[in-house]
From TrEMBL, chains A, B:
<feature type="binding site">
    <location>
        <begin position="273"/>
        <end position="274"/>
    </location>
    <ligand>
        <name>FMN</name>
    </ligand>
</feature>
<feature type="binding site">
    <location>
        <begin position="200"/>
        <end position="201"/>
    </location>
    <ligand>
        <name>substrate</name>
    </ligand>
</feature>
<keyword id="KW-0520">NAD</keyword>
<feature type="binding site">
    <location>
        <position position="107"/>
    </location>
    <ligand>
        <name>FMN</name>
    </ligand>
</feature>
<keyword id="KW-0665">Pyrimidine biosynthesis</keyword>
<comment type="pathway">
    <text>Pyrimidine metabolism; UMP biosynthesis via de novo pathway.</text>
</comment>
<feature type="binding site">
    <location>
        <position position="135"/>
    </location>
    <ligand>
        <name>FMN</name>
    </ligand>
</feature>
<feature type="binding site">
    <location>
        <begin position="53"/>
        <end position="54"/>
    </location>
    <ligand>
        <name>FMN</name>
    </ligand>
</feature>
<feature type="binding site">
    <location>
        <position position="53"/>
    </location>
    <ligand>
        <name>substrate</name>
    </ligand>
</feature>
UniProtKB/TrEMBL annotation, chains C, D:
<dbReference type="GO" id="GO:0016491">
    <property type="term" value="F:oxidoreductase activity"/>
</dbReference>
<dbReference type="InterPro" id="IPR001433">
    <property type="entry name" value="OxRdtase_FAD/NAD-bd"/>
</dbReference>
<dbReference type="InterPro" id="IPR012165">
    <property type="entry name" value="Cyt_c3_hydrogenase_gsu"/>
</dbReference>
<dbReference type="InterPro" id="IPR019480">
    <property type="entry name" value="Dihydroorotate_DH_Fe-S-bd"/>
</dbReference>
<comment type="similarity">
    <text>Belongs to the PyrK family.</text>
</comment>
<feature type="binding site">
    <location>
        <position position="257"/>
    </location>
    <ligand>
        <name>[2Fe-2S] cluster</name>
    </ligand>
</feature>
<dbReference type="InterPro" id="IPR037117">
    <property type="entry name" value="Dihydroorotate_DH_ele_sf"/>
</dbReference>
<dbReference type="Pfam" id="PF00175">
    <property type="entry name" value="NAD_binding_1"/>
</dbReference>
<dbReference type="InterPro" id="IPR050353">
    <property type="entry name" value="PyrK_electron_transfer"/>
</dbReference>
Amino acid sequence: MMSDDKIIQPSLAVEIAGLKLKNPVMPASGTFGYGEEYSRYLDLNQLGAVVTKGMSLHPKAGNNVPRICETVSGMLNAIGLQNVGVDAFLEEKMPFLQRYDCPVIVNFFGNTQDEYGEVAARLDDVPGVAALEMNISCPNVKHGGIIFGTDPKAAFAAISLVRKRTSKPLIVKLTPNVTDIQVTARAAEDAGADALSLINTLTGMAVDVKTRKPRLANVIGGLSGPAIRPIAVRLVHQVVQAVQIPVIGIGGISRAMDALEFLIVGAKAVQVGTANFVDPNAMATIIRGLEEFCRDEGVADINDLIGSLEL
Amino acid sequence: MMSDDKIIQPSLAVEIAGLKLKNPVMPASGTFGYGEEYSRYLDLNQLGAVVTKGMSLHPKAGNNVPRICETVSGMLNAIGLQNVGVDAFLEEKMPFLQRYDCPVIVNFFGNTQDEYGEVAARLDDVPGVAALEMNISCPNVKHGGIIFGTDPKAAFAAISLVRKRTSKPLIVKLTPNVTDIQVTARAAEDAGADALSLINTLTGMAVDVKTRKPRLANVIGGLSGPAIRPIAVRLVHQVVQAVQIPVIGIGGISRAMDALEFLIVGAKAVQVGTANFVDPNAMATIIRGLEEFCRDEGVADINDLIGSLEL
Amino acid sequence: MNNIKTIVLSNQEISPGYFRMKILAPGYNKLASPGQFVMFRVQRSLPPLLRRPFGIFRMGFMPADCDNMPPKEFIELIYKVVGSGTEIMQGLHQGDPVELLGPLGQGFDLGEPDEEKILVGGGIGLVPLYMLAEKMVDNSNVSLLMGGRTRDDIITVTEFERLGVGTYVSTEDGSLGEEGLVTRVLERKLEKSPHATVFACGPMPMIAAVQKICLQYDTPLQVSLEALMACGVGACLGCVVKGAGHTDVDPHYLCTCTRGPVFKAEELDWDKDEMTVRTSGGCR
Amino acid sequence: MNNIKTIVLSNQEISPGYFRMKILAPGYNKLASPGQFVMFRVQRSLPPLLRRPFGIFRMGFMPADCDNMPPKEFIELIYKVVGSGTEIMQGLHQGDPVELLGPLGQGFDLGEPDEEKILVGGGIGLVPLYMLAEKMVDNSNVSLLMGGRTRDDIITVTEFERLGVGTYVSTEDGSLGEEGLVTRVLERKLEKSPHATVFACGPMPMIAAVQKICLQYDTPLQVSLEALMACGVGACLGCVVKGAGHTDVDPHYLCTCTRGPVFKAEELDWDKDEMTVRTSGGCR
Ligand SMILES: Cc1cc2nc3c(=O)[nH]c(=O)nc-3n(C[C@H](O)[C@H](O)[C@H](O)COP(=O)(O)OP(=O)(O)OC[C@H]3O[C@@H](n4cnc5c(N)ncnc54)[C@H](O)[C@@H]3O)c2cc1C
Ligand SMILES: Cc1cc2nc3c(=O)[nH]c(=O)nc-3n(C[C@H](O)[C@H](O)[C@H](O)COP(=O)(O)OP(=O)(O)OC[C@H]3O[C@@H](n4cnc5c(N)ncnc54)[C@H](O)[C@@H]3O)c2cc1C
Ligand SMILES: Cc1cc2nc3c(=O)[nH]c(=O)nc-3n(C[C@H](O)[C@H](O)[C@H](O)COP(=O)(O)O)c2cc1C
Ligand SMILES: Cc1cc2nc3c(=O)[nH]c(=O)nc-3n(C[C@H](O)[C@H](O)[C@H](O)COP(=O)(O)O)c2cc1C
Ligand code: FES
Ligand code: FES
């Protein structure tokens, strides 16, 4: 590049479902608490958005311990969606987040369609809630515990209902544990989702060979971390091709390079999960890394990178 | 343990579908060539069995390069099932294997039901072929390229046909890329499989962010190696609960400890894949490690460990 | 509370399988209180993926290199090699880069001055008790009951003695001090000093036994617990223990990393023996 | 061919980014021939998961430590730090445990004595040519054309000279030797010596250009190729290149690890420029 072409300050801003983000980097739900936990280590105003721990209608105590276990380049968790419940969230957690100049995306779930609808409704007119992220990797208690997200019909019905009860941008978070994610993705789009985020954790299990017990009290848990990245990149690639709505990429991102894989296959933004535990500063480093990469590669606007995969 | 209880030589022998194995350790198809490639580094007679590269009716040239790519604690491959074809295998490769005192399991696949049947038939009366392993992770060219293994009906039909054309023990190798592996597992059992092996690779993808090209010419490949072990253990656990026939566990095994996880959740044997590349001696070390573990834990017969998971 | 990139100052084996690591740690002397911990990361290495939690054994200042420089602050960890992470740690040398997140968690409540204090340490559980002793020894009568399986598990007792702490050692195999469990020593001690406060840290069976004894003598007890941790800051909710009043129908979980690692006995649910950390060894 | 657990004897930076590693390697002097390679593993570490392929630069014997001991056999690798694996390698010290699988693959065909031999090396591609020169220099006229981007990429040329090889150096930026591509030097050389045999190793664009030139002069050519490898022994089929006669309808692939890494030009398909190794940098 010629020196007068040099990009001094590449633009990292992206837009998702009408939501303007300073940059495409935000935490993944459940790995960043309610924002406050990490606010000592990281200026939340740097982030594209904050995504909260998953919220339900009623407080949820979560699973018995052990709840986590390290695996090769990853970890299993079976937290059991422990959360304070949507009302306590609004009262105790939201005011803190409202002090920041950073869009807040509230992740939520329910055990029935109606619970999903009810939580969405309670969040609908809350100032500072920029968007909702609907986690459909939750057992549908009305239908024998089958996960909403693995049954496109149940997903469609639940999303349609939520769609009616919220005017906020609705992001639907997909589970990777399906044969054909394009089917779920299209069902979510058809039901009115404004954006999709993926992946949630892959189900996994580990055994303590000495005690012959599962390493998690819940036996099965969700696998996250660098180990799953190739699977996540593949799924995002497939979903981007299946839908028109924007996609947020998640799974094993811990460096700018990792985030770039997702952006290049077509994700409009990314979420960083397990990497926050390893380095509370991970997202700030990733944002700086994206900026540097754009500068080095002569990319003036990160949107030019998004979907730039050459097949 | 009291010293006169001491187990001097634990028994590692297991039986799968009438097949007697010295020990439960064998290579995973496609990671051990036709046996000969590693015979310089490892005495094949030590192994529970040898499993060959996947064989098809006609020779197959495989995919364009790049075909492999390292990922975090794993690798992607899109070899494209390159193989010499069943006839050349019988003529050029099988005689070498017949010299060993080690059961030979021939992995095979087809692009149509009939191709599957035809390969099975050609292998049926070959002396030294101890069992067939049917890889159903192959695109069904008659039905728009959908993978046999992701469509329980297609799997059932193909397995039923193969069942009619072989009298050898039939192992069906399952793909993990499905919503509910218990459904495929039961379909395979119902169609007459004598045993199941799992998992084949998880589909994944990686991107070179500098060139913005996929790292594999085939774009998507199969993820293997330590990274996938927790997913494989979970799937084996689920399949063991769904069927009566024996199960062979595969996925990310590189140490005796890893193999034990699979045995404890109920696999009767294990296959070692990617680890052979890292250490040609891996299987021998694992066998020794299993023996040591049994000795240390006072297990006289490894069958007592199989399925000993405490929930 | 801070995340710092820093370096190892020294790392030495002090007893078979036990290592003592000194780390440059600006700010800690002001921030850290007894019973707090750090999340330790061997930089750039993977595995291990997650950080490992370690109590702070001691902190202080190193003599300055030259007159114009401020003295260097350090903390010391003492760790036992048990798995993949600690195996890598034992290979670290002076100057190697590491990261510290901390100081984290709620430490010990120092209680009233003049009151008698009994510290009960089991093996590596001794670690958080040293700084506690340092703080209390000036205005209280402090004693340390130290237990271990063999003499190899008895560490740094001399340093406690140098502080002026009365120490009692017991080992299960009798290879050092009295033969038997440290809890037997505690019972004898409480016979004589029923109004003491007890501070305990060690393996879960030991802590559970200490709790039973203290309940019996109606002695106040603070315990420092271990739990599997991913974040150390209250974000992952992986590290919970059952709080007092916990039932299966109405579960009540407390984060060990933010509400602990030190708890008053009455904050916890002692009914279940599942409260143990199911440790791993093998999550390579 | 063997898998040995051995140790590093020395590991030194010889030019910015280039390292030379001496490894204890019993048996290699008898087994290995010029152009063969090893699959190298940093023991116990993960990542990298897979072994890394490296050519053998040189082998030999170290003086025995004492009279009764046999002299120690070693091999030398020269590697460029380009990614995760080589980054770890550069941190290895004397005595560190490593594993070698090898010697592997088909090396160079030494050709007829007295025939003139031209070696063309691009940067790190020089590595397999040294042992080749050693073998040929006694009964042939051997010259080395060495190219690189900058003078930092010109390595070990003096050692070739010491063997009695005539050397020509060129760099793209002119910082050492002639300014320009090594292929220009080759053309000039072939003008004068049309009956030589050429042996080339270097980046793919260089090799492709060398092939064009040799075709033009009708000069026999052997090339040593790089390919992504998982096993190194013909088991994974990951490392193939397109063989002569390859078409999309009737593809024809050859394993670089067993049929190569050295190929005669006529064995390969030169139509496609896709024959490049798409290297990575980032598969952490
Ligand atoms: C608050 C706190 C303070 C601690 N202080 C000390 C100390 O001062 N000295 C010391 O030697 N140890 C201490 N531990 C235990 C120490 O964290 C573990 O021994 C260490 O994490 C083991 O790591 P590893 O990789 O060697 O073992 P692995 O078994 O390979 O570790 C696998 C996973 O399990 C976790 N894990 C394993 N054992 C424990 C354990 N006992 N407690 C918590 N997590 C565990 C690891 O952190 C890791 O995530 C403390 C634990 C906690 C929670
Ligand atoms: C037969 C043969 C001989 C070689 N001889 C030498 C030598 O003497 N000196 C030297 O410096 N290099 C040599 N190479 C290249 C060397 O293998 C790579 O530079 C090295 O593997 C890079 O590893 P990394 O982990 O640093 O890079 P990363 O990019 O992190 O590696 C990721 C993956 O890609 C593979 N890879 C990356 N670059 C190459 C490449 N150029 N060729 C093959 N695989 C690659 C790695 O092996 C690994 O599997 C040789 C390659 C082959 C095939
Ligand atoms: C401890 C933990 C808790 C999580 N909790 C939630 C949750 O409440 N809701 C949700 O949608 N996803 C949850 N997830 C999934 C993450 O948001 C993310 O999808 C997943 O971890 C993959 O990303 P990563 O590999 O970057 O961690 C959780 C993950 C972890 C590790
Ligand atoms: C290079 C490579 C080639 C493979 N080829 C085949 C094959 O031909 N047939 C088959 O059924 N599985 C094949 N597999 C899948 C393995 O047999 C095994 O199921 C998978 O790699 C998971 O095990 P691992 O993690 O131990 O490698 C291949 C795997 C690799 C890495
Ligand atoms: S360790 Fe994450 S909440 Fe305590
Ligand atoms: S590297 Fe495996 S076949 Fe060549």
